[in-house]
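Internal tracking record. Fields below are filled automatically when a chain is submitted to the structure queue. Please do not edit lines marked as system-generated. If the sequence contains nonstandard residues, flag them in the REMARKS field before resubmitting.
Queue: standard
Priority: normal
Entity type: single polypeptide chain
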Amino acid sequence: MDDIVKQALAKWPNVPHCTGWLLFDRRGNWRMRDEAAQAAGAPGEPIRHAALLGFINRNYEADETGQWFFQNGPQRVYVELGYTPFVVRLARDYATGLLTLTDQAGNAFEPAAVYLDDDGGILFSDSARPARVALLHDHDLDLFSEHADLAADGQGGQFHWRDDAGLTLEPVRKAEVEKRFGFVASPAARAAASS
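SYSTEM-GENERATED OUTPUT FOLLOWS
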């Protein structure tokens, strides 16, 4: 968390939280949702300002209940998730020949497990406690396919991550991902249900 954010929290500790205004979509884009977008159930406008994106990514974390938020100075802005709290990009490092995974902030993501959901999405989890889960960006499905062997029934297989570290491709139901990995996809819906 940025020092300026920590200072603002110390100075104004009781600023109310907000929900519904920020969305993290299935392609790793941050989107601003004004009242009209929220009322229409629209994703909102993508945020393109590089400094703001960096600020959001550096101050993005989860609370103890699995709700992800962006700490915007003294205000906690809970994030609506298009699917998972992270989106990763798969690439080949041509200098080493190794595959790499990076999250939406450009940070390395070291997979511990890989999943195939019932909608054809590929998800990775890491070994953090609790595990972070990330959706593979759909532009990288071809590269993933080049390094995966699917079972004949399409329910599993093997992902060849490293020469010495293959990962079993496990099936997962899309409807169970949120509960299985302990995150809240819609803090706004949770807040509305509790009020």
